[in-house]
């Protein structure tokens, strides 16, 4: 689900670019999924893509981005340093910086998942969504609540980077330290401003889960669904297995 949402947002954003910007291209800072999505669809749409990836980015994802023909720059100790460098390059080269979880078109593209959920699954009681920068839950919540206000929207994040919970308590996005987590795709130290403004009024509940439950969820998905799911995608199931959502017992959730 997590990688799929990144794809939708990236493609929609690229398609919405003015023609002159499509020729110049875009740039992003990402350790993995957002970079992969932009690079893949950039190649297909023939739009130049530059991605700045941190030194800790998975080697497989760095190589995959290069195979998609993107200009890949590995620089910076964390995503924050990558972002600063990417923004400088954007200004110097006339590239559009695309935030992977806060650009309005990214949110809109990810929101199409919400539309498909309610089209394909009848009589839903709740949707349980992994949360990192907040883009996915913002887009999905807006789509779902607009059509079916009674459906509960529940966000789940790793306790090692609970930035959305911190933002809800503070009433605005705040910085939290992102520790190493199996859900590396959710390790965003501060939620997006647009994402938070959209999601905060629509999310009914936000819970955090321990790393042990994320690991168990990955294993359970392999055993039962024969699917290898990364930690970010398995985090929603982790909340259910950990007993964090007792109110959903016997109900339909997605």
UniProtKB/TrEMBL annotation:
Residues 6-251 form the Tryptophan synthase beta chain-like PALP domain. Keywords: Lyase, Pyridoxal phosphate. Pfam families: PALP. The keyword ATP-binding does not apply. The lineage of its organism: Eukaryota, Metazoa, Ecdysozoa, Arthropoda, Crustacea. It comes from Cherax quadricarinatus. The keyword DNA damage does not apply. Its cofactor is pyridoxal 5'-phosphate. GO terms for biological process: isoleucine biosynthetic process; L-serine catabolic process; L-threonine catabolic process. Belongs to the serine/threonine dehydratase family. This is L-serine deaminase. One of its GO terms (molecular function) is L-serine ammonia-lyase activity. Coiled coil: none annotated. Transmembrane segments: none annotated.
